[in-house]
Amino acid sequence: MKRVVIPELLDTDAGTPEEVADSLADLEMFNRYFGGVGTMADLLMSVAAQRKLKSLSWLDVAGGQGRLATRTVAALNAGIMQNVFAALLGTMLSGFLIPRLAAMFEWRATFFITGIPGLICALLVWLYLREPAREPAATAGPSNTTGLGALALLKEHNIRVCCVISIFMVAWFIVALAFLPIFFQNYRGFTAEQAGGLVGVTGLATLFSGFLVPAWSDRVGRKPAMILFCFLGVVTSLAALYFNGPLWILGVLLFIGWSGTGSFPLFMGVVPGETVSRSLAATSMGFVVCIGELIGGAAVPPAAGWIADHTSLAAPVIVVGVCAFCAGVAALFLKETAPRKVAALAR
Predict the structure, then answer these.
(1) Which of 51, 132, 190, 213 has a CA that sits 20 to 30 A from residue 109's CA?
(2) What is the pLDDT of residues 250-259, one digit of tens each?
(3) Is 137 within a domain?
(4) What is the CATH number of the domain that holds 276?
(5) How many Å apart are CA 257 and CA 209, to the nearest integer?
(6) Which residues lie below 8 Å from residue 162, measured CB to CB, with a gap of 6+?
(7) DSSP code at position 133
């Protein structure tokens, strides 16, 4: 240990730079190996070298957006922001809590209770979210689209493909979450606790795939990652319908199938943002999400419920599988946008 015992050394101007460095040497070593400081320092040095810069501004280093994130870890950042904490609180924990709340207060009251976290989030956004600084129009980069209207975005091939994928994957996600708990209890004969545990596994899958899949796409490309994990969504339906083995194996299969949620940050954010200019990135992302929610989120689930009323509870689960398969087919038509792959193809 090199720590120098100097009272309030770091709280005052006392001590030479050498004494301060010696005092923090052991803490720096610990953080380098266990706190991610070394990894982050290596990342920043690598980015600075690639951009031929001797220093990086604070905005460059800041986490989720900007040119640094766009060129290096854009998909990873998007995955963490969109999926990780939403999966931890919104899917995994809710899978365990909601059946128990329903047993205590009945389902109608439970539906109202589940809206409380959304109101809390809205309040926190209103209180604490700060608008990021806008770049001057001259430095925003050339526009890759014609016109500023949302419909003009449909002239871009990848935007059209992402809209189609969004429709099917949003439908896959919402129909599965809405009907799987009921399907497991009323069709497969599981208890409420077992059904809640299986739904909780899907949240765990989203937690990991939400950042691992986008990070992997930074290396292998957006298109291969989206094709693979959209098609993997079919496993959710097949496992729920046909697997009759041990419950823990069913949970593993659902984990594999639900890793399809790792494609969401890609088709909803990363690919649209990389397809158009930075000035239209937010518009393109919002447009893809809007189309997916309007059709896949608002139209398909009622249709799946109507089919279930006239057939059986297996019908919505079949719809889940069909939606994932169609999304995988649509992903085959994407054009690669990952900077690393695009640069490799241009050589």
Answers:
(1) 190
(2) 999 999 999 9
(3) no
(4) 1.20.1250.20
(5) 11
(6) 267, 268, 271, 272, 288, 334
(7) P
